[in-house]
Amino acid sequence: MSKLTNKQQQFYDTLISYIRKYFRWPTYKELADRLGFSSENSVTQYYDALVSKQFLKKDSQGNYTFTNPADVWIHENGHRQPTSIPIVGEITAGSMQEAIEADLGEVTIGDFFPNASNVFALRVKGDSMKDLGISTGDKVILSKTDLRDGDVGAVLYDGNTTLKRAHIRTTGIRLEPANPAYDDIIIKPGEFEEVTVLGKYLGHITDEGLVKSPFR
Fold it and tell me: 202: domain CATH number?
């Protein structure tokens, strides 16, 4: 491989950081906006340069892949960022039996969230949901679905977003915090059109890992 110029390295690093965060390739416009390019043609030129220097490969359909995929998932500290969990064998849930080791595939994000294409995350700021164990800095996992009465979810109301439990009635909506230090938010029927449901709460991620919602 030829060495990248400083600007080519910046482009390559931007690709990696975007894919690590969103688990998809950025569009040409997203790259142009992030890198301050005046034209998407510049994105094409950088892609071509990375292919020429063998950092990327391009197939016959015009799709790009990394020549060394490990670049995406190995962080600066040298530790690999796993994208799946190996299934290394079987264990009985009945009578005792001998442990059986085998390569039985992997557990992926799709196994945690079967409708992963409709799932997204938001980082929490504030402590109004602390009694659910949700704290500032946690990432809440949300599904792009409507809320039913009693669901916890993220909503946009009066230009502001909030994570609350929604009590939905024909007489109004009450957004209830999980912290007695905060008041309920009351939305009257005439204001329903000002409410946008962003997503239903599925769980949240803390420094210790994933906490699944106790609610169905």
Answer: 2.10.109.10
Of the candidates 85, 92, 91, the one whose C-alpha atom is nearest the C-alpha of residue 111 is 85
Choose among 166, 188, 163: nearest CA to 175. 166
Q: What does the pLDDT look like over 90-141, one tens digit per residue?
A: 777 777 777 667 767 777 777 777 777 788 888 899 999 999 999 999 989 9
In CATH, what number is assigned to the domain containing residue 63? 1.10.10.10
Report the 10 Å Cβ neighbour count for 164.
24
Are residues 107 and 87 in contact, defined by beta-carbon separation less than 8 angstroms? Answer: yes
Q: Which of 58, 73, 88 is the last residue of a domain?
A: 73
Residues classed as catalytic: 128, 164
Residues 150 and 203 in one domain: yes
Bridging pattern class, strands 119-123 and 106-107: unpaired
